[in-house]
């Protein structure tokens, strides 16, 4: 007779467990492990990079139903780094990002689609330089699991995209300096507490 409550409890828990696992998990991006690398062609000679740091971001991920997933990130223009002090000043100026008027760039997803095998297409809008345009990210899940450093559930993705800076009103020196910009993103996030 004493075993009956245990059996009923175990049966109830097993019946609700799948729905608990399927619920979306909200993660906060870790700015010390999240970077965007922008690459451009420079007069055809080289492909210099700019590194951008994500200031803050929220990632909601549902591994059972990726369509319930989303991402929103804010990138402070002042933290763009070309590794050339004079070029950093130019990138902040009205020639490029005009950071005084438009201090941040923001990406908000609209739709996430699973391609299988840990691959995802993220369709969203990027707002930069006061202009909003669609940008599609091709993302790969690196890992989801316990992070022994933060002692929290964590997740990490890499993603790529291409965009045209002229779409955002940044036409300076096109086409000598390429209009097309390649983005490579790596991100790590811990479950929100």
Automatic annotation (TrEMBL):
Superkingdom of this protein's organism: Bacteria
Under the heading PANTHER family, the entry gives: PROTEIN YCEI (PTHR34406:SF1)
Task: Please provide the record's keywords in A-Z order.
Answer: Signal
Name of the protein this chain belongs to: Polyisoprenoid-binding protein
Which residue ranges does UniProt annotate as crossing the membrane?
A: none
Q: Does the keyword Signal apply?
A: yes
Q: Which residues form the Lipid/polyisoprenoid-binding YceI-like domain?
A: 26-190
The taxonomy runs:
Bacteria, Pseudomonadati, Pseudomonadota, Gammaproteobacteria, Lysobacterales
Annotated Pfam families: YceI
- Gene3D superfamilies according to UniProt: Lipid/polyisoprenoid-binding, YceI-like (2.40.128.110)
In the UniProt record, the signal sequence range is 1-22
